[in-house]
């Protein structure tokens, strides 16, 4: 047995086949749910894997997952791993040109997609030479009854490309399942089998991060043991599961199309525990599921997902029983000090964890208890993480700014992009390193203070300002619900700091002077916003990550 994700999953199935592995709850108000044991999920993945192989797909070819959350998403990932195909996540918010870019850049040979996206897929397909096998989940809406999705592009899909859709050779997901055997019968696999995570970041076109599965197991899945020692043998994973028992439910709330939620699901599988899923993020339904399913751990993305839970607990869901909940963790964006404090007032027993990592590094560490707007975003990092000079790759002196880097179990590079691979990955002391985009300093105790993404750094009169630091200060104001910060052109200083702010519902109006007065107690003078735009809604990705391109456009336009 090797450190291959399909092998590891199957080893867990074999020791706890009857244990519940996955509960999917559709909402709101439908009451629909699906529950699968480990044996049932394994058999479902086997069926799809055999269909993919029987359809002519070869080991190493790439399959895209253009899906909302659901059983089909994790089933398809597992099927890919079993058949030695490479799963590739597709952002379901992308429109035609973006999809064409990703389909082509990733060299997709097959695609599993939700029916709502039929029009977009059909529109992109003529410009996608290698994509030859399509599997659709559900039935597409008719032109007279467009998708209920909130995305305008989805609502026009069916009417715009009906003729093209009718001409496509599409296999229904249910037919694909029915055609395949529920048994395994697959050939040997390898720890070198790939897993690709496409990351859009906050600027530029998406990049496909290529992970060997063994490296991803240790860097992104904690070697099978987030709270203790990683396994030393692949067989040890199932041995630990067999020696333990059920009782934990992991609830990845963000979209599975973002790597963190998929990896969280696999962490639960490697524990032999249960995963709870919702199709989309509805805060009130999240709280109801925590109560009903006795959820142990929720993962989400920053204030954008935590604040609505607070609002619901103060309002319509006041009194919800969250006694089963042990932890709420965030990756991809931080839970600010102010919002954490508000949640702890309502649910004091829950551990709040600001985890830090990326698609390129897996986990780097977690925030310290004193991390906040006054001291900065401070991290206890793992022993593989360093702050280095980006030019020499040597460790920086205490207090000097550098770039975060990680060694050991890191990706092979970016798929189809040797230039960016050379800029980001390097070899040093016989180990492979990845150079992350985050600027940071390190103190005498080894605590790392993250300054922010270098690509978003604002140079104002020669001083460097990182948006994340200013955003933390802004969100500590009691009337600020959300905020993003960007640099806008300035004739004298080159750029000036501008804030886009969403106030709390019912909050009194603020002006620039009030915002600046609040920030002066927390920030150096050159970091204080010189312009502010108030908006009814801060635009973020579906997972809650910052959309800095949007923020810069809004700030500059105003």
Any key phrases for this structure?
558 residues, alpha/beta, Rossmann fold, GMP Synthetase, Chain A, domain 3, 3 domains, 14-stranded mixed sheet, 18 helices, 27% strand
What does this structure look like?
It is a single chain. By secondary structure, the chain is an alpha/beta fold. The chain folds into three domains: 5-238, Rossmann fold (3-Layer(aba) Sandwich), CATH 3.40.50; 247-452, ANL, N-terminal domain (Rossmann fold, 3-Layer(aba) Sandwich); 457-557, ANL, C-terminal domain (GMP Synthetase, Chain A, domain 3, 2-Layer Sandwich), CATH 3.30.300. 32% of the residues lie in helices and 27% in strands. It has 18 helices and 27 strands. The strands form five sheets. Strands 1, 2, 10, 11, 12, 13, 14, 15, 16, 17, 18, 20, 21 and 22 form a 14-stranded mixed β-sheet that branches. The chain has a five-stranded parallel β-sheet with strand order 4-3-5-6-7, with helices on both faces. Helix 1 (5-15) packs parallel to helix 10. It is globular and about 65 Å long.
């Amino acid at each position: 047995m090797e450190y291959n994700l399909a092998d590891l999953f199957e080893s867990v199935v074999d020791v706890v086949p009857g244990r519940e592995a996955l509960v999917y709850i559709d909402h709101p108000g439908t009451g629909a749910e699906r529950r699968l044991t480990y044996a049932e999920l394994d058999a479902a993945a086997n069926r799809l894997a055999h269909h993919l192989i029987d359809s002519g797909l070869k080991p190493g070819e790439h399959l895209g997952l253009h899906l909302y959350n659901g059983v089909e998403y994790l089933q398809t990932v597992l099927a890919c791993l079993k058949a030695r195909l490479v799963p590739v996540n597709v952002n379901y918010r992308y429109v035609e040109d973006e999809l064409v870019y990703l389909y082509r850049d990733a060299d997709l040979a097959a695609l599993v997609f939700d029916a709502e996206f039929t029009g977009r897929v059909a529109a992109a397909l003529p410009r996608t030479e290698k994509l030859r096998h399509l599997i659709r989940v559900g039935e597409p809406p008719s032109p007279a009854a467009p998708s209920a999705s909130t995305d305008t592009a989805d609502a026009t899909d069916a009417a715009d490309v009906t003729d093209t859709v009718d001409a496509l050779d599409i296999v229904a997901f249910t037919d694909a399942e029915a055609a395949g055997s529920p048994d395994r019968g697959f050939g040997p696999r390898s720890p070198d089998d790939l897993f690709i995570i496409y990351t859009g970041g906050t600027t530029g076109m998406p990049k496909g991060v290529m992970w060997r599965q063994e490296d991803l197991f240790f860097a992104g899945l904690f070697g099978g043991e987030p709270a203790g020692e990683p396994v030393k043998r692949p067989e040890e994973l199932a041995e630990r599961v067999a020696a333990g028992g059920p009782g934990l439910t992991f609830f990845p709330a963000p979209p599975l199309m973002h790597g963190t939620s998929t990896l969280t699901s696999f962490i639960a599988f490697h524990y032999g525990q249960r995963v709870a899923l919702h199709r989309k993020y509805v805060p009130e339904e999240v709280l109801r599921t925590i109560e009903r399913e006795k959820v142990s751990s929720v993962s989400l993305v920053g204030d954008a997902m935590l604040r609505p839970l607070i609002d619901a607990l103060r309002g319509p869901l006041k009194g919800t029983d969250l006694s089963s909940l042990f932890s709420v963790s965030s990756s991809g964006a931080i839970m600010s000090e102010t919002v954490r404090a508000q949640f702890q007032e309502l649910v004091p027993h829950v551990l709040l964890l600001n985890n830090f990592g990326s698609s390129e590094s897996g986990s780097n560490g977690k925030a310290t208890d004193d991390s906040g707007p006054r001291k900065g975003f401070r991290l206890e990092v793992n022993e593989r993480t360093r702050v280095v000079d980006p030019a020499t790759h040597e460790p920086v002196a205490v207090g000097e700014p550098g770039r975060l880097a990680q060694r050991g179990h890191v990706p092979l590079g970016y798929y189809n992009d040797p230039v960016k691979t050379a800029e980001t990955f390097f070899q040093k002391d016989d180990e492979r390193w990845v150079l992350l985009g985050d600027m940071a300093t390190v103190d005498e105790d080894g605590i790392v203070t993250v300054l922010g993404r270098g690509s978003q750094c604002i140079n104002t009169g020669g001083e460097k300002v990182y948006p994340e630091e200013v955003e933390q200060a802004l969100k500590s104001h009691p009337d600020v619900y959300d905020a993003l910060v960007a640099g806008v052109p300035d004739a004298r200083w080159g750029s000036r700091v501008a804030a886009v702010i969403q106030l709390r519902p019912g909050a009194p109006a603020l002006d620039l002077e009030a915002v600046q007065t609040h920030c002066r107690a927390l920030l150096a003078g050159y970091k204080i916003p010189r312009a502010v735009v108030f908006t009814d809604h801060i635009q973020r990705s579906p997972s809650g990550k910052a959309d800095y391109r949007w923020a810069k456009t809004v700030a500059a336009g105003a």
